[in-house]
Amino acid sequence: MRFIHHNNIITLDNTGTVDPTTGNPLSEVFSYPADEFLRDEPQYNGLPYGMTSRIWTDGRGILSDGTSNYHDTLDCQPFIVRLSIYKQAYEDRIAINGPPEISLDSIQNSAYSSNILMNGNFDIWQRGTMFITLSDHQYTADRFLFTRAGSMVYSCEQSQDTPDTQVSASQSEYSLLLTCTTSQETVNTDDYVCIEQRVEGSYIRMLYNTTASISFYVKASIPGVYCVSISNNIDKTMLLEYTIEEADTWERKDIPFDIDIANGTWPCDNLTGIRIIWCLGAGSTYTTDPRRTWKDGVYYGTSAQTSVSQTVNATFALSQVQLVHGKIIQPFQQKTQYQELIDCMRYYEKSYPVTITPGDELHTGLALLPIMYTKNKYFALYFPFQVPKRSVPSMRSWDAEGNTNRHTAWTKTWAHVDNLSSDRFSFDATHRGFVYRDMLTSTNYGTIGRHWSADAEL
Question: Is this prediction's pTM over 0.70?
Answer without folding.
Answer: yes
